[in-house]
Fold this protein.
Amino acid sequence: MEQKNIVFLVVGIVVGPVLSAIFGLQVSAGSLEDEVKAVSQKQKAICCAIRATDEVGDTRSLNDADLKDLAKRMAREPGQPEPSYEAMSRCRDLLQ
């Protein structure tokens, strides 16, 4: 009986992770980092859009060049010389 339990344990240790990886139940470090980065950029874009709306008001009347300049100015974070392209682009999309 004890030998049977050891076999089940070994099969579970080997087969369990393989099956969960096949069915997508495990999260890799790379996919986790990608998801965190995407959520972070989305949050930065929302904050950018809020700041831009507070400063300008209705942004729908601005042309594309003005929207780009406004998004670039508002997406800049303290201590960074330039805003990230993703946050700036998403901010501009939210302002349209």
Notes: The longest helix spans residues 29-56. The radius of gyration is 24 Å. The helical segments are 2-22, 29-56, 64-75, 85-95. The mean pLDDT is 85.
